[in-house]
Amino acid sequence: MTVFREAMQSYNSFIQEASEEQKALSAKDSLYRILARQYEFYQRSPEASLIVLRYVIFPPAFLKETIDEAFLHSDELLTKAIEQLIVQGIKEGVIREQPVELLVDSFLNLMDGLSMQYFYYTSKEVYERKLNHAFEMYWNGARS
Predict the structure, then answer these.
(1) Beta bridge partners of 143
(2) How many CB atoms sit inside 10 A of residue 95's CB?
(3) What are residue 95's phi and psi, to 5 degrees?
(4) CA distances, 14 to each of 32, 77, 121 (Å)
(5) Distance from the first to the final alpha carbon of the chain
(6) Most confident residue range from 6-10, 16-20, 105-109, 118-122
(7) Distance, CA of 86 to CA of 91 (rounded, Å)
(8) pTM score above 0.85
(9) CB 125: neighbour CB atoms within 10 A?
(10) Cα separation of 61 and 136, whole Å?
(11) pLDDT, tens digit, for every residue of 20-36?
(12) What is the share, in percent, of the chain residues with pLDDT greater than 70?
């Protein structure tokens, strides 16, 4: 559990750093940057990434409640960061007016899908192509 918590803390720090970096970027660039930073996190911290993925998807029964709590805290931080960027984009007029929750949930699903893609493909070029194509489709659905 200590190793899992440290891995989650490392990921939470990544979220906070990403949020701070976004202040100078457009909403579109900020959202893309979150996906790119997730990829960077996986590359920099492969052990932590695998531990978190394994424990979130297949938690040991006796730790499930504790793991769920840690995950929900991390998810809350990430959701707030994405929500702020989407609201910024709506205010900038680059994201069309629509329910923020819809856009946030879609983005989180995109992140989850890309997480799995990262572990499927060893080729950086293939992963980056998939990341770029997936983000392009997301952005096309969100933009004004």
Answers:
(1) 95
(2) 23
(3) -115, 130
(4) 15, 11, 23
(5) 44
(6) 105-109
(7) 9
(8) yes
(9) 8
(10) 39
(11) 666 778 999 999 999 99
(12) 96
